[in-house]
Amino acid sequence: MTDGLKITNLSAGYGKHRVITRFTAPPLPRGRITMLTGPNGCGKSTLLRGLAGLNQASGEVLLDGQPLLALPFAKRAEKVVLLPQSLPQGVHLHVLESVLAARRASGGRSDREEEAQALALLQQLGIAHLALHYLDQLSSGGQKQLVGLAQSLIRQPALLLLDEPLSALDLNHQFQVMAVVARETRRRNMVTVVVVHDLNIALRHGEQMLMLKAGELIASGEPQAVVTPENLARVYGVRGRVEPCSQGKPQLIVDGVINDK
Ligand SMILES: Nc1ncnc2c1ncn2[C@@H]1O[C@H](COP(=O)(O)OP(=O)(O)OP(=O)(O)O)[C@@H](O)[C@H]1O
Ligand SMILES: [Mg+2]
Fold it and tell me: Are residues 129 and 221 both part of a single domain?
């Protein structure tokens, strides 16, 4: 039995509209961050929703050798957490209460230790000062996104699916969040999949990468092996290059779009 996630021949979509057809990916190991990238509308969210059992999906998804899709919803929810791209409207609940409620939803107890854990998490995400603020009174983008992350992490899933978790965050929070996600991924030995559009973030924080186009896997492997001028042209229709920065870290520069795509 292999530890981690194995996706074979996964099809997912909406009604008759299959967005992903017979999608197979290399194994996604535990303890590592896999970056999922690709153009708007290529099927990233559909893939994550399929893995979480939130749309009509068929095929084989094994987590540590155990089939995920066949599990009853509640059992799967103990193992898989999806932070969706668009967050629901906040309810009139304190931030801290909402994080504890998320923990309880995954079978955790809510005692002093849990509360300390939740507060520590808020601290790490840089939002401890919001603990007693109401969810429906947070800033509509970033603060809600950070609370959503805290709710996802506190549930301690085996498979953590984050759909564009950085899209509303400032530079400081983007970096802080990726550091927390990386640390928690290792500490809890989770399979973590993060959807990002910023390929420099993928290069910097990803350990593995899947690049999609029109529902198909075009490239996979270490981010530096995936973010190549050829793949950028084929998948995004841009002229791009990856060069080492002054500290030797890979940096993507986009020079323009290819008009004759
Ligand atoms: N609820 C839905 N019902 C029907 N079709 C949908 C639904 N959600 C998405 N689609 C379609 O599925 C395709 C893939 O959408 P998806 O949201 O997975 O893309 P994405 O890669 O996440 O894009 P983005 O980068 O813009 O978030 C699109 O053609 C979209 O129109
Ligand atoms: Mg999406």
Answer: yes
